[in-house]
Design brief:
Blueprint lengths: L1 H13 L21 E12 L2 E12 L3 E5 L6 H8 L7 E6 L3 E2 L5 H6 L2 E4 L11 H9 L5 H5 L5 H14 L14 H13 L5 E5 L7 H14 L4 E5 L3 H7 L2 E6 L2 E6 L1 H5 L2 H8 L2
Parallel strand pairs: 3-8, 3-9, 6-7, 7-8
Antiparallel strand pairs: 1-2, 1-4, 4-5, 9-10
Helix pairs in contact: 4-6, 4-7, 6-7
The structure holds adenosine-5'-triphosphate and magnesium ion.
Magnesium ion (MG) binds next to α2.
């Protein structure tokens, strides 16, 4: 026993076997005192020699709502894959706040640590009610079984009510998610992400396939979330982007082509040439 303790102590001291020690996930606090909540610096991702991201540098401020636009294949989705740990870059650095190195964390750790991602296709549990979907989402990634057998605390019930109001589905609370309209499913999924109280929310093409009315409602929803959350929205629907945009980043060939207000980027000749002039 003593020998084993000594061995452990030695391992701890050398730090050579650091990877064998239990790690505390996200031990550094999210630090946004300098402004940005997300730092991407010099990020390059290659697929068989083709650079989907090419030395990309981009900062998102805490609480901001940023729109990212750009032609097909510009690297928008790949950028989200890098932030969420789905794709590892060949080079560059990716930080959540000043101190959390996202490249050292797994996809699950990143999701649990405060970065929520909404994919284009809604992935709600169709046979469960709206309420149950929000309840299941409390557990977060990979924790569904634990929630199914746990009682809700009053705080958790309050949070569900709060989120129902934000996403405007109070009237649908006991209906199975499968009967909701496409737009309502998308809002429910945003609600499920909100159950985790993410600091940063990544939303890829939220209004694709929505009616004009649903699109308008989604604009209101995302706008209302800014401030409390930081939100990155990728979208091709320019009318929608114009409605919600403060600062817009135009990606092209894996790099930032232009950044500024919607008016600024829309009148930028380079942007017109590669994207808006199509
Ligand atoms: N897993 C992969 N393997 C090979 N190539 C890939 C992979 N993922 C993306 N790419 C390529 O990288 C480039 C960037 O793709 P990405 O999906 O990031 O573009 P995007 O800006 O999201 O485009 P869109 O507006 O069409 O969604 C594309 O040329 C794409 O074909
Ligand atoms: Mg995409």
């Amino acid at each position: 026993m003593k020998a084993l303790d000594r061995l452990r102590e030695g391992m701890r001291r050398d730090r050579v076997f650091d990877f064998m020690m239990p790690k505390v996930v996200f031990s550094p606090e999210l630090d946004t005192r300098h402004g940005p909540i997300l730092y991407l610096e010099g990020v390059t991702v290659s697929f068989d020699g083709f650079k989907a991201l090419d030395d990309l540098t981009l900062y998102i401020d805490d609480g901001e709502l940023r729109c990212i636009i750009g032609p097909n294949g510009a690297g928008k989705t790949t950028m989200m894959d890098v932030i969420t740990g789905k794709t590892r870059p060949d080079s560059g650095s990716v930080y959540f706040g000043q101190r959390i190195d996202l490249l050292r964390l797994s996809e699950t750790e990143i999701a649990q640590g405060g970065i929520g991602r909404k994919f284009q296709k809604p992935t709600v549990f169709e046979q469960h009610t709206v309420f149950e979907n929000l309840e299941l989402a409390l557990a977060g990634p990979k924790g569904v079984w634990a929630t199914l057998f746990a009682r809700l605390t009053p705080e958790q019930r309050d949070r569900i009510d709060e989120v129902l109001e934000i996403i405007g589905l109070q009237d649908q609370v006991h209906r199975p998610a499968g009967v909701l309209s496409h737009g309502q499913k998308q809002w429910l999924e945003i609600g499920m992400l909100l159950m985790q109280s993410p600091r940063l929310l990544l939303v890829d093409e939220p209004v694709a396939g929505m009616t004009a009315q649903e699109t308008e409602r989604t604009a209101e929803l995302l706008t209302s979330l800014a401030g409390r959350h930081s939100i990155v929205v990728v979208e091709h629907d320019m009318e929608f982007v114009r409605t919600i945009a403060r600062k817009v980043t135009v990606l092209h060939e894996g790099r930032v082509l232009a950044e500024g207000s919607m008016d600024e980027v829309q009148s930028d000749p380079r942007v017109v040439e590669v994207y808006l002039g199509e």
